[in-house]
Amino acid sequence: MAHGLLYVVLLGAPGAGKGTQAGLLAGRLGVPHVSSGDLFRENLAGGTHLGRSAKSYIDKGELVPDAITIAMVMERLAQPDCDKGVLLDGFPRTLAQAQALDEALAGNGQRISVAPYIRVSEETLLARLAGRWTCQRCQAVYHQLFSPPRVPGVCDVCGGGLYQRADDTPETHKKRIEVYMVQTRPLIDYYRLLGLLRVIDGERSVDEVQAALLDVVQGLGEDGDRAQEAR
Ligand code: AP5
What we know:
Layout: E1 6-10, H1 18-29, E2 33-35, H2 36-46, H3 49-60, H4 66-77, E3 85-89, H5 95-106, E4 115-119, H6 122-130, E5 132-135, E6 141-143, E7 162-163, H7 170-184, H8 186-193, E8 197-201, H9 206-217
Helix pairs in contact: 1-9, 2-3, 4-5, 6-7
BIS(adenosine)-5'-pentaphosphate (AP5) binds near residues 37, 40 and 146.
């Protein structure tokens, strides 16, 4: 991460559409999409020590401890493909993680470029999480009603099989949203105070949200009033 230029932190509650948008946006911006949730799931699938340490937290809808999470993400950011910047999805999720990221970037003379916040109502979050299907091979995300694959159960992108995440149960959805409200939502104020927050109305279609994000990240405009109260 030595000479990074673009460091985007994508904020939003579970189910807001961070993964959906980040997958599209990273390709357009030419920077890697680094998702802490995907990194944990790769470790779970690979049966690594890290995956085994994280499993009980993920299954319960709780956050994995900061020390484990920060070490995992920092290791990913040290890889050469992150030299031009990165699109972060799901990290940071606590103030300690945000401060660790700021310190790591400052050590390389860098800082966060922008923190778009995809704002969605709780009702929409629950509806989106309930119908989600994910590709086990390439992690592309679908929804049984809002964005179904062309062939049921098969990924449009790579032909891989689709599955429902183990943490996609009604009980875990509620728990993850509660955890988000207490531990992650304070980051909205953190980035607002730094002048980096941009609020995106996430209730719109995938394409409309993507266009708004692209505008914000490329500095072509802003989605709504920067000073508006974020939820
Ligand atoms: P993680 O994988 O990060 O889950 P999350 O933040 O809960 O987010 P989701 O992946 O559930 O939702 P999303 O916002 O990406 O929405 P998506 O694009 O899929 O984390 C999982 C767990 O790992 C955590 O609970 C925790 O235990 C652990 N963890 C991860 N990071 C951590 C960290 N930093 N610290 C500690 N622990 C950590 O979209 C959802 C659905 O909606 C899809 O079906 C999609 O097709 C649909 N959809 C998306 N956009 C739209 C739209 N505009 N219109 C209609 N449908 C849409």
